[in-house]
Description:
- The complex is a heterodimer of chains A (266) and B (338).
- Chain A is mainly α.
- Chain A has helices at 2-20, 24-29, 42-49, 54-86, 90-102, 110-120, 130-151, 154-162, 167-196, 199-204, 213-218, 230-256.
- Chain A has a single domain (22-28, 38-256), classed as MetI-like (MetI-like fold, Orthogonal Bundle).
- Chain A is built from twelve helices and no strands.
- In chain A, helix 1 crosses helix 12 (230-256).
- Chain A starts with a helix and ends in a 10-residue tail after the last helix.
- Chain B has 338 residues and is α+β, with helices and mostly antiparallel strands.
- Chain B has two domains: 38-61 and 84-240, 3-Layer(aba) Sandwich (Rossmann fold); 247-335, CATH 2.40.50.140.
- Helix content of chain B is 24%, strand content 33%.
- Chain B has a six-stranded mixed β-sheet with strand order 6-7-8-3-9-10, sandwiched between helices.
- In chain B, strand 15 (289-296) and strand 16 form a beta hairpin.
- In chain B, helix 2 packs across helix 3 and helix 3 crosses helix 4 (147-160).
- The relative contact order of chain B is 0.13.
- Chains A and B meet through helix 8 and helix 9 of A and strand 6, helix 2 and helix 4 of B.
Amino acid sequence: xxxxxxxxxxxxxxxxxxxxxxxxxxxxxxxxxxxxxxxxxxxxxxxxxxxxxxxxxxxxxxxxxxxxxxxxxxxxxxxxxxxxxxxxxxxxxxxxxxxxxxxxxxxxxxxxxxxxxxxxxxxxxxxxxxxxxxxxxxxxxxxxxxxxxxxxxxxxxxxxxxxxxxxxxxxxxxxxxxxxxxxxxxxxxxxxxxxxxxxxxxxxxxxxxxxxxxxxxxxxxxxxxxxxxxxxxxxxxxxxxxxxxxxxxxxxxxxxxxxxxxxxxx
Amino acid sequence: xxxxxxxxxxxxxxxxxxxxxxxxxxxxxxxxxxxxxxxxxxxxxxxxxxxxxxxxxxxxxxxxxxxxxxxxxxxxxxxxxxxxxxxxxxxxxxxxxxxxxxxxxxxxxxxxxxxxxxxxxxxxxxxxxxxxxxxxxxxxxxxxxxxxxxxxxxxxxxxxxxxxxxxxxxxxxxxxxxxxxxxxxxxxxxxxxxxxxxxxxxxxxxxxxxxxxxxxxxxxxxxxxxxxxxxxxxxxxxxxxxxxxxxxxxxxxxxxxxxxxxxxxxxxxxxxxxxxxxxxxxxxxxxxxxxxxxxxxxxxxxxxxxxxxxxxxxxxxxxxxxxxxxxxxxxxxxxxxx
Lengths: 266, 338
């Protein structure tokens, strides 16, 4: 069962990896060709030497992703805290509203967003992209972090209050360190959203050197109008997945480790 | 309220609570609490869950806001001060140690925030660690400590601040019975008899009797009685206090004139003749004593007798008149002996 699941999720990635390292002819004709014309780095060369080169898009995406994540967390942490600790009767109303916005179909928004970008002069501004991204990620982030705050024993904060820690200090020294796993997983979700987002990135940014990865990959052209550059697509996708892999590997430990363990009873 | 304190001239040392109340919507969590705790005195707040004892503690700590009333500490009104400015230390039932910090860092955090110099900080922490025999454990995280060790760390954190008032919220309820007994004298040694008043919340009457100089019994947000353990046991203000203190619980027999007769199981004695006829239903043998469950014409009785007492199927039970406690069967108030 487990190996079946593994196959299910890894097979497309493996195919992508394979596609990125073979010539277009090999891809179509399959095995039985001479080894010399089978494996190739040509696809990577193509996307790396393109103008602008792929690392430019990777960089753009990373900048937007980092800005989006920072903005989302900066807004979601206070909101989640307030909702959890001071919400009172409004708590459930606000939570349900957030849930409703979280499941609202984004597609319906983006014509209006485009209009907004035009009138506010936000088009072709890389950092401005993180505004709609953060807005779209915020409901989910708040819901996730609210649940995380709810899991922290309230006595921990009481103890800190008695020791004279004000709200900012409590967050800095007690609450956020304990929320690190939840913060990390929320950050990764937000970053992933921003990394993969296509329609807004496509419509807000028209200058090639400012584009993020998804629209840039879509723009990769074949040698003629009638060829589909499978290899180049695959190479770009592989390169685009690497940073995500890296991030997950780095944060894996803090996601998995249960830091609140032992806070109350052993 | 029974045994109300006379009003002394202020400023008086120690803790003084005047008309403290907390209401949440329709619910009254604490109603008009008045009491005093002298310097170095340990007062236990005793009562069943929901009686307002933890509410009182949180009001004293400044963690919740009072609806009415004043809290005076050494004559200063601290009611309006924030929790961090009251210099009140609290040991939580869950200990509330910061799980991501070592023992030493748990202690250091509060002092660091206050801007105490590193050297002074370390000296104070070492002194407290030594006092509580925690020096070897100072680099461990809370998860790596036993329940008793965690409690000592929580205590260390409370003492470190040289508080003007120490509050303990069921500090031993997470420990096993044997450890609790061992820790009681140690807690008393560390906490009581200093300059600061100590308020100790518990639902365990044995702990209250063992720890406290005086006990305040609370029920549904109202103070029932305050006094020494002995006063509460011998002269309970009402049926509730009588039933809450003393194990096995007091026998309550219906009597004429809308009264109830309270008889403690340990005050009943078997007699040859002239007593209340009773039939033995069950017995529990406790080693040093045995508890008998009896059925009599006036109702069921619990009786505590020596472990080696021979027991016939039927026996007669008597008691001394001075051990009788009479209660009004409606109000539950204790009546003068008749």
